[in-house]
Amino acid sequence: MRNRKLLEKALRNPQGLRFEEAGKLAQAFGFRLDRVSGRHHIFNRAGIPQLVNLQDCGGKAKAYQVKQLLKLVEMHNLSIED
Predict the structure, then answer these.
(1) Is 60 helix (H, G, I), strand (E, B) or coil?
(2) Total Cβ atoms within 10 A of residue 9
(3) I want to staple 63 with a disulfide (CB 3.0 to 4.6 A). Which of 6, 15, 71, 79 is the partner?
């Protein structure tokens, strides 16, 4: 799925986003996988002190974590890297 379509899907229905899609969306905004600790996948981005934590729960991403990612994107005015 294209990055812009993933963003639209996340904005419409954050609880319906698959874990792989959430990770791909984070990477589309320039976040890189820093480490994995159990089910927690931690992403970071240069110049942004906050981390993005995504958990795989039965193949789905947790809705509140997707919302946190979207809030960071908005707060730092990030754009999708195609």
Answers:
(1) strand
(2) 17
(3) 15
**Alpha-carbon distance 9 to 6, whole Å?**
5
- CATH code where residue 23 lies: 3.30.920.30
Tens-place pLDDT, residues 22-50:
999 999 999 999 999 999 999 999 999 99
What are the backbone dihedrals phi and psi of residue 77, each rounded to the nearest 5 degrees, phi first?
A: 55, 50
Query: Residue 81 falls within a domain, yes or no?
Result: no
Task: Name the nearest CA neighbour of 52 among 67, 15, 38.
Answer: 67
Total-model pTM: 0.93
Residue 23: inside a domain, yes or no? yes
- The 8-class DSSP code of residue 34 comes to E
Please tell me the total count of domains within the chain: 1
